[in-house]
Amino acid sequence: MAKRNTTALTARDLEILTCLDRTPMTPRQLHVASQAFCQPFAAEALVRRRLGRLREAGFANAFPYSLVSEGRAPKYWKLTRSGYRLIYGVNATLPGRRYFSEVSVGHHVHTHAIASLVAHFVATAARHQVEMDHFARENSLKLKVGQSHVYPDGAFRLVYPSQPDRPFPFVLELDNGSERVRSSRDTESIERKIRTYDLHQSRYKRDDPARYLVLFVTTRSERRLENVLSTCRALIRNPDRTLFLGGTLDRLLSGDPFADPMLQSNNGIMRTLIPVGKHRIKSSVSGVVDKTP
């Protein structure tokens, strides 16, 4: 049960808790993600202050990262059981203990990278009037086809609110270089994942709103990215079909993937994350302008 306090919850508090439901985040990552909030935070210090209030209320908790980032060893925040029930209702079935407990040290780099990517996507999407209206947490989604299956590192859907019947679904593979690229025997190889995604995604027709793309993001080099994409080209049954979009984490975080073609498809095309077209983009300098990437 949440602790009693005099802090009144706001719409922005619910936006914070929704972010933490997607993935653990640091105050800096939440500050980035808040650019999509109805009322963005003006400074990271204000995020920290609000997180402290949510912890006092019993809705969120903080744990230390065992990595040096943001100039120091940051803390990441997660929902408590009370925080989860606040979002989904008092009668909601709670996820397993791991959802609420500390992230294992071996997964700190991986989790931090996913959160940085999600925060950046949410913030840049808002500039193009795009929303992330659905998100499945790491390992919460199982895609099965035949005797093979894969648990993505996340899944999300992007949509223009004016076109809700035309979503853009993605599953996320965040690569830290720990998996072999080519191996028919290794159950954790990227080759096996490519084959599974190829079989699973091909079940959907081209215009099916459930047909997704695999967003492959590596924390390693451009050379490893090209190795993965060339492997995908060699393995999928229809090499002209787009299955993978790939990019390095550094490249994606340094720019706007909705405006700049910084993702490479398995068939060699440089693309934006989704087609932006002539949509109105918010600009902090000149108000609102039209832009065609």
From TrEMBL:
InterPro entries: Replic_Relax. It comes from the Bacteria. This is Replication-relaxation. The lineage of its organism: Bacteria, Pseudomonadati, Planctomycetota, Planctomycetia, Pirellulales.
